[in-house]
Amino acid sequence: MKQLFSGDKVTSFTETVKEIDLFNKDTNYIEKIENTASIDTEKKSGLNNPPFINYVTFNRMGLTIRNLNNILDSEEDFEMHIVDSSSIDNSWDYIQSLTDKRIKSKTRLRMNLGPIYPVNFSLAKRKPDQYFFTIDSDTYIKTKNWISCFMEVFEAFPEVGLLGVMRDKPYPRYMPAIIPRVKGDLSYLELKNAAVGADLDFVPGQLQCLRPELIREIGYWSEENGYGDAELSPRVVHYTSFKAGFLTTVEIDMTQSVSCDECQGKDLCQLNKSVNTCYFLSKSLNFNESFAQKFRWKYLETFNELEEGKRTAYCASVHDPESIRKYLYNQTWAAENFEHYIKNSNKYRNQP
Fold first, then answer.
1. What is the pLDDT of residues 137-180, one digit of tens each?
2. Residue 182: strand pairing partners
């Protein structure tokens, strides 16, 4: 396995990596898996399978119930896999109560390792020819036939590998530079620049779909720089044969909290609400901004390496050992990224 090192930025972390030992074959951050289908036997095929939906929860049970129930209310066909990143607000109890046949697996992590670990965990399960959706738990999808809307554009525009939608309330609506693409009654907005390091010049990931042919080129979200949406778009646009863009026919709402009085999970909730609400837990344990500030240099260095030909667009994952053997993978960077969340996003786990 090849590794890249970058001077003192890595040497200061050597002892911490030994403590985490994330890549030891005996290390397991999966606490529980409930499969309602035989994933291993089904994974060999992929043709004519419904799209794969990755849905990750981390506290905010009331909002999760509102938004996930809305998705399950749809009559469209899909294969859903739910990952709970060690919520402590009864989210897992709600997930276990779900009986929809389109839910194929429910997984609980014993620690929160940040947003990249669970999405790649799900992506490693995907069948080879399956489209891959990832949906944030704060996304309420207003459009009933939203999967069909995505599929129509993918079919009409074979050059599109990544499609998402614009952020919406309570976030200010913002669109980076785009190029309208039209074929008959169908259209999408192609991301024009996807400039590395530019603010919001990417397709945000609250509701996003990847074409299977694109996944063959990019592998996984980068665990090495951990920059999620901001790294995925420029990697796709500049280093693959595909385009990225925005769908305009799917509407969402991104309300950030549900009051305890309005919560559909009141009967499940065991939190002492005078101390912590599920929204407070989610907000106080979200360390994405501090991560971005601390490790921006890895994001920039990754694209320097791509530009210099030191790596390809394919990113490997700890969930796919074969990918780590075949492709360049900076194990030290990845372990440091996961450790940022292990140390910061699990501090209430042992409290009553």
1. 999 999 999 999 999 999 999 999 999 999 988 888 889 999 99
2. 187
- Going across the sheet that includes 243-246, the strands are 30-35, 103-109, 79-84, 52-57, 132-135, 207-210, 160-164, 243-246, 186-191, 178-183
Q: Which helix (H) or strand (E) holds 304?
A: helix 288-307
pLDDT at position 198 over 50: yes
Whether the CB-CB separation of 175 and 166 falls below 8 Å is answered with yes
pLDDT digits (tens, 9 = 90+) for 220-251: 999 999 999 999 999 999 999 999 999 999 99
- Please answer whether residues 114 and 338 qualify as being in contact, where contact means their C-beta atoms are separated by less than 8 angstroms: yes
Distance between start and end Cα atoms, the chain? 43
Distance CA 63, CA 98 (A): 16
The confidence score (pLDDT) of residue 8 equals 32
- The residue type at 131: Y
Cis peptide before 170 (omega within 30 of 0): yes
CATH of 8-344, one of 3.30.460.80, 3.40.50.300, 3.90.550.10, 3.40.50.1820: 3.90.550.10
Q: For residues 226 and 114, is the Cβ–Cβ distance under 8 A?
A: yes
What integer pLDDT is reported at residue 24 of this predicted model?
61
Do 61 and 269 touch, CB atoms closer than 8 A?
yes
How far is residue 308's CA from residue 303's CA, in Å, rounded to a whole number? 8
Neighbours of 338 (CB within 10 A): 23
Select the more confidently predicted residue: 25 or 313.
313
d(CA 318, CA 300): 22
